[in-house]
Amino acid sequence: MASKLDIHQIPAGPLETNAFLVVVADTKQALLIDAPPESHDAVMTIVRDHDVTVDTIILTHTHWDHIVDTNAFRVSLRAPVHAHSKADARLARPGSAVMDLPYTIEPITSDGHLDDGDEVAVGEQTFAVMHLPGHDPSHIVLYNVEAKVLLGGDVLFPGGHGRTDVPGADQDTMLQSLARLLELPDDVTVYPGHGQPTTIGAERGWMTEMTASVR
């Protein structure tokens, strides 16, 4: 039986974007999911206090509020950064197309790529990678079947989905991604990029209605 997961949620920055430190309890190995602005110190405090080793930093997508602290984490954690291959161009020229940012984001280079069907192992736990674009062409999520956990970035929120009125987004593609999430069991807990966790079951009603045309 695999070791249980301890999931630390760290909201940070002006949009209260969630970073998630996903720790395998037995081995203290961890993944860091996303790197919001002003999240570095809070995450590093947890890493030190719990004697955690972060194996990989994973970016769910390229929007500025999820990546500002990436390079700082790469240095502090000495961990590689992984993202979808479609993230490379945006990470090389990070910023926002819709607003002036109070941050300077240095270019980010991925150390490795994750695509649909790949697996990410940490300790005895394994996460399946799902490429779920719509909010962003590079958007990925991580799904752990045994723990019934989905680290969902900005695809699914309580009562709604990620915005599709921003550059690179597409509503029809988002509906296809939501339809894929409907294939997961109701008792899967979803940890979103903003706000509090929810479950597939709690969101199934509106997702089913919204995606009827693509299923």
Protein described:
With 215 residues, the protein is α/β, with parallel strands linked by helices. It has a single domain, classed as Metallo-beta-lactamase, Chain A (4-Layer Sandwich). It is built from 5 helices and 14 strands. The chain has helices at residues 40-49, 70-77, 88-92, 171-181, 200-210, and strands spanning 5-12, 17-24, 29-33, 53-58, 81-83, 112-113, 119-122, 125-131, 140-144, 149-153, 156-157, 160-161, 189-192, 198-199. The longest helix has 11 residues, at 171-181.
Could you give a quick summary of the protein structure above?
The chain is of the alpha/beta class and 215 residues long.
Beta-strand percentage range: 25-35%
Helix fraction, binned, reads 10-25%
Structural class: alpha/beta
- Residue stretches low in confidence (pLDDT < 50, at least 5 long) are none
Count of discrete domains:
1
Q: Remind me, CATH topology?
A: Metallo-beta-lactamase, Chain A
Tally the helices: 5
Question: In order across it, which strands form the biggest sheet?
Answer: 1-2-3-4-5-6
CATH superfamily: Ribonuclease Z/Hydroxyacylglutathione hydrolase-like
Order of helices and strands: EEEHEHEHEEEEEEEHEEH
- Main sheet record: 6 strands, mixed
N- to C-terminal distance: 35 Å
Average pLDDT, all residues: 95
CATH top level? Alpha Beta
Shape verdict: globular
The appropriate CATH architecture is: 4-Layer Sandwich
Radius of gyration over C-alpha positions, nearest whole angstrom? 16 Å
